[in-house]
Amino acid sequence: MPPPDPEPPDPEAPDPEAPDPEPPDLEPPDPEAPDPEAIAEQVFAALADPSRRAILAALASGGPATATDLAGRLPITRQAIAKHLALLALAGLVTTEPGERRRVRYRLRSAPMRVAQQFLAALARDWDDPLDALKDHLDQKGNR
User: Fold this and answer.
1) What is the pTM of this model?
2) 66 CB contacts (<8 Å, ≥6 apart)?
3) Which residues contact 112 (CB under 8 A, 6 or more apart)?
């Protein structure tokens, strides 16, 4: 008896001899693009210290200032202020500009603060809907 004819190949089955399909063209993340969560984390870490908050408040009310100027307005040594300003600069909350006689002046930058505000607003939105649903559910149970 002759062997049965082999079944024809399924036209929709992948060809085992074909090379792996190319992955779709995906853009790699831009290493230069700022990560909003990382920016918010740096802002929150910088704001955690009361001395740094006082320095930011002094810059907000008095405008750009040197570390020496700030030491005259705050109960913090100039050396401590310089250290805090360096951390605030790393968080992007202050920027430096040349002052008179080679002194460095510090100016507030609001962009990182806005990123942190947007982060908090998104977090609040994530909580608002479930909390509103829970409130509605509890109100309905209380009205029965």
Assistant:
1) 0.64
2) 99, 103, 104, 105, 106
3) 39, 42, 43, 91, 92, 93
Rounded distance, CA 108 to CA 71, Å? 17
**Residue whose pair of structure tokens reads 């401590």 in the numeric block:** 80
Give the residues of the chain that fall short of pLDDT 70: 1-33, 144
DSSP string, 29-88: P-TTS--HHHHHHHHHHHHTSHHHHHHHHHHHHH-SB-HHHHHHHSSS-HHHHHHHHHHH
Residues facing residue 107 across a β-bridge: 95
Which residue bears the tokens 């005259």?
A: 72
Residue 135: what are its φ and ψ, rounded to 5°?
-60, -45
Assigned token pair, 128: 């608002």
Task: Give the separation between CA 76 and CA 84, rounded to whole angstroms.
Answer: 10
Q: Give the span between the Cα atoms of 99 and 68, in whole angstroms.
A: 12
Residues near 95 by Cβ (< 8 Å), separated by ≥ 6?
89, 106, 107, 109
For residue 89, the model assigns a pLDDT of: 94
